[in-house]
Task: inverse folding
């Protein structure tokens, strides 16, 4: 039984994240999608909201379990007994940060393997940050996030809350 950890801020989850989750499901027996708790980072959705949205959009993907973690990723890997970390790579611009993180994690824990998955081209330019900006100006985000996320974004006062 091979379990992988897919960590992230997921503020909020996008179709790009879901695409990566579905690809990871083809490679692993179980995927723990873990929302990072980081009190230094201001997020639009709180931890419970981000977990609820993820649970809702992944409810028909049996291999997925949604959780949260605080602290180091390598410790979350031990807690959830995972063999790899999944990260999405959208463009070359993602590579430097992701490379540093993967190498740092492997240095901290030699068993920490990172698997990079590329989302479908239509999601290769998508980011949660951009989605929030488009939503703030009442733009159409329906192609980029599931309906439940679009509804949750409408319920937020984005004018004062964008992060
Ligand atoms: O969706 P994000 O914001 O790109 O996710 C980043 C995340 C949460 C995966 C990353 O910040 C992280 O792993 N944080 C945990 C702290 C940690 O382990 N830091 C050392 C590795 S560089």
Result:
């Amino acid at each position: 039984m091979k379990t992988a950890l897919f960590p992230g801020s997921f503020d909020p989850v996008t179709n790009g994240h879901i695409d990566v989750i579905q690809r990871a499901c083809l490679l692993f027996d179980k995927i723990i999608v873990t929302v990072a708790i980081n009190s230094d980072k201001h997020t639009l959705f709180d931890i419970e909201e981000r977990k609820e949205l993820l649970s809702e959009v992944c409810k028909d993907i049996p291999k997925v379990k949604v959780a949260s973690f605080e602290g180091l990723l390598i410790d979350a890997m031990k807690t959830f007994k995972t063999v790899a970390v999944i990260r999405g790579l959208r463009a070359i611009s993602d590579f430097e940060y992701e490379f540093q993180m993967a190498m740092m994690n492997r240095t901290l824990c030699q068993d920490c393997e990172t698997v990079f998955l590329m989302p479908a081209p239509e999601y290769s330019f998508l980011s949660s940050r951009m989605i929030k900006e488009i939503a703030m100006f009442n733009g159409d985000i329906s192609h980029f996030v599931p309906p439940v996320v679009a509804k949750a974004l409408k319920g937020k006062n984005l004018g004062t809350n964008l992060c």
Observations:
- The chain has a mean pLDDT of 94.
